[in-house]
What we know:
Elements: E1 2-9, H1 17-29, E2 34-41, H2 46-56, E3 60-64, H3 70-83, E4 88-92, H4 94-97, H5 100-106, E5 112-114, H6 119-138, E6 151-156, E7 161-166, E8 185-188, E9 194-196, E10 223-225, E11 228-229, E12 247-248, H7 251-263, E13 268-271, H8 280-292, E14 299-304, H9 311-318, E15 325-332, H10 336-341, H11 348-361, E16 365-372, H12 379-390, E17 396-401, H13 409-412, E18 420-421, E19 429-431, H14 437-455, H15 460-469, H16 473-486, H17 496-511, H18 521-525, H19 527-531, H20 544-558, H21 575-587, H22 600-606, E20 608-611, E21 617-625, E22 632-640, E23 645-653
Parallel strand pairs: 1-2, 1-3, 3-4, 4-5, 10-13, 13-14, 14-15, 15-16, 16-17
Antiparallel strand pairs: 5-8, 6-7, 8-9, 11-12, 18-19, 20-21, 21-22, 22-23
Helix pairs in contact: 1-6, 2-3, 7-8, 8-9, 14-16, 15-20, 17-20, 21-22
Amino acid sequence: MKFLLAAINAKYIHSNPGVYSLRAFARTKIPGADIEIGEYTINHQMDLILQDIYRRKPDFIGFSCYIWNISYIMEIVRDVKKVLPEVEIWLGGPEVSYDAKKVLTREPDVCGVMRGEGELTFTELVRAYLKREELCAAAGDIDSGSEMQRQEKTLVSDENTWQPKAVKAETGDRRGLDLDNIPGITYRAESGEVVERGPQRLLSLDEIPFYYDDMAGFENRIVYYESSRGCPFSCSYCLSSIDKTVRFRSLDLVLPELQFFLDHKVPQVKFVDRTFNCKRDHTLGIWRYLVEHDNGITNFHFEVSADIFDEEELELIGKMRPGLIQLEIGVQSTNPDTIKEIHRHMDLVKLKQAVDRVYDYRNTHQHLDLIAGLPYENYESFMRSFDDVYRMRPDQLQMGFLKVLKGSYMEEQVAAYDLKYRGIPPYEVLSTKWLPYSDVIRLKGVEGMVEVYYNSGQFPATMKLLEKKFARPSEIFTSLAEYYEKNGLTGISHSRLARYEILYGFLEGKEAKVEQSTPAAENLAGTEQKIGVKAAETAVKPTLADFRDSLMYDLYVRENIKSRPSFSSDQSPYKKEVREFFMAEEESPQWLTDYAGFDSKQMAKMAHLEHMEDGTFVLFDYKNRDPLSGNARAVRFRYDRKGSRMVPAKPARI
């Protein structure tokens, strides 16, 4: 009998650790069980997924269900039953665990749901199905092959023997299948009744085998790893709040498994632990090991609560190779009423101090999260939260929108909050009593601009100038969103160069009217003072020429562009200075020491020297890049006409 565990991921670079864990655990308990994994993405054509499943000819399919894939899965389920009518289909995962009975009532093609953690439950299901197959085979009741053509036996009293009567397996046929003693499942009984068994016991994580015994198939993909389950916190919007029991995998197992990734030079390992640093000795044990055994390549991603870092943990981060780890920090809001209502326990002062400390190390990417649509957060309140978090200088500021997850406390409060949300996955907020839909639309526009102009990392110098031009960080992005909307630029896939042209057009329009607005009094007197965030300096306003320089810097620091934007300055008057610089570097390398063996003309093509409108020259060295941002090394010069040579300007390094 063949079992197929199917996962539909959001992107190709993602993998689904759940299905690998289920297979690994089941194989240790039932050696020889025929369990395959099928991984697809939501970008695959449905027909190709259906074809692959059909070719595998499974007898049992278990689909891993999340908010991003449930719609795709249900469409596939209905089609699979048309081409493989005898296959037994089960669902599992958070999207079906909390309303399993409704799922079975709504979806007649589904045999059952595995609720909660699946390793034990799936293993017991495999055992039950194999036992039925064994019993039927012993009675001559099943054909060899994989499509489960079963035969019904009838008792003839005068001979006291069983005589076979061939029947076709039907969905919901439970004859010979004993599911009564399997916890953690909801299933359709032979009578058609939907039966729900009690919860499955929680496993020790040490019982789960390491499932990355072979890295084949994971090339160029993110590898996920779990060293703990559960979360000590009770955030109302999160499913992790349901189970407050936190279990840890022993370091005696974790460290050799991490070494496996290091030995295989995996590009990135993403820990799926909900709050990685909630147990100090566990955190330090792993981080010390990574520092001591760093291979110079692998990056490890952790989701942490920055406000509970202690001095030893922060000092250890400071000793790490740039890019060894990256941190995802959920702030969600800086509104005290909101934080209290969503049951978060967070010290914003300590959080900011920790984020600032890590920022000063310049070795660790920090990703800070906000959620729009939370209780007590209106548009202005969210913008204050945005300003507070932006001024913590994260490498990425993720603006998420509240998802009303099934089984969460937030779902229970829908009426109290007058919370309206999409009726289909991902169940995203439409409005609350504090935030009308019109403001949600405005925030969507801001989110788009943050992604393009901040999170992309493609406008670092220009963003710093924009911070001087506008009184509040949020005004940068609200103004950009309004400009995009006004000029019909929203909803269009723009090229990288077009984004720069658009931004310059925006700046040309704003240049005649310098922003005069000031931060709201409640912003300066409220959260900012409490957490120590300073308002942006607005005394010195940059000129349009400054912005042209910053945009050219941002373009070239990423790549040696071949097509220049319309606003770029003419470089032909400076050919002599540029030629002399590269000739000097060929003769006696001082700044391009990694270009040995190349002549000056080749160097001029491999690196770039740009004359800026402020009179300086900037060298972009593409052989030397920042390990975090990937940006080229940039050095500023001024031309010494007396000596006919370039000399470093102050500051030389940019």
